[in-house]
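User: I'm curious whether this sequence folds into something compact or stays loose and floppy. Could you predict its structure so I can see for myself?
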Amino acid sequence: MAAKQRKTFDIFARIKRGGELIHIGTVEAENEKLAKVYASFTYDEEDWSEMIVVDRSQFVWVKKPHGLFAQKGERVR
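Assistant: Here's the prediction. I'll summarize afterward.
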């Protein structure tokens, strides 16, 4: 039986209702359900009012930063 592919999930949270939504970290998991469990145990240092798990592959970039060592004129894909 082959091992399942792990994906990166970004974790966003809000400390209090109406507060800023902040990126608090990432978790690696096989699926969304496990990512939620990992996030809730990994980032339990605050009493978050909201926590969101987003599969990194679902991000839609509006403006993507260039790599730290990108050459002048080099395009990011």
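Summary: The chain has a mean pLDDT of 88. The chain has one domain: 1-77.
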